[in-house]
Amino acid sequence: MIDEERQADAAEYVLGTLDPQAAEALEAAARDDRELAREIYRWQDRLLPLFNRVAPASPRPETWARVRDTISRPLPSAPWWQSLRLWQGLVAATLVVAVGLGVQLARIPEASDTRFVAMLQTPEQNIGWVVELSDANTVRLRPVGALPALPAGRAWQFWTKPMGASKPTSLGLVPANGVIEVPRDALPALENQQLFEVTLEPENGSPTGKPTGPILAVGRMVALADY
Amino acid sequence: MEYDYESALIACARGEAYALESLYARESRWLLGVCRRILRDTALAEDALQDAFLKVWQRAHTYDRNLGSARGWIYTVVRHSALDLVRKGGREIAQEDPHALLDDPGHRDDERHGNAIDIDRCLEGLDDSRRESILLAFLDGYSHEQVATALATPLGTVKSWIRRGLLMLRDCLS
Question: What is the ipTM of this complex?
Answer without folding.
Answer: 0.90
